[in-house]
Design a protein that fits this description.
five-stranded mixed sheet, two-stranded antiparallel sheet
Amino acid sequence: MNKRILIFTISALLLIAGSIIYVTTSDKPKSDSQSTTAQNSTPTTEQTSTTPEQTQTTTTGAYTDYTPEKLAQATGQKVLFFHASWCPQCRSIDKGITADAIPKDTTIFKVDYDTNQDLRKKYGVTLQTTFVVVDDNQNLVKKHVGYDEPTFEAVKKALF
């Protein structure tokens, strides 16, 4: 009898541990060369021709991690993207930003939603997936929440 209880308890613990490992590893976004490039503060390029002999590139906007210094030094349109790594909608929009062309002369700053409470308070951000367009004095110009339609295409329609 005691042997059966011990086997049952060990089996249950293994099942629970396996489930926890599966859930924690499956929620993490897969890293690829696009996300590494997207974190760069230099502008991205988009191929506009299909033949190697006539490759033409046009400079588009940039996507970079937020720092107060980067925001202060940026020129053109500045957009803060309040992102949480645990948020599936944020990851979906992030994937769209790295795959699609950012409008010219626009820099999107990826702001960590969980660690930037003062910035969230300043712009009235209460939900991750919020985009805030700021002027050169870092005043709010326009705000959009992409939670219900988590695509970069929807964000572009709302903001640009």
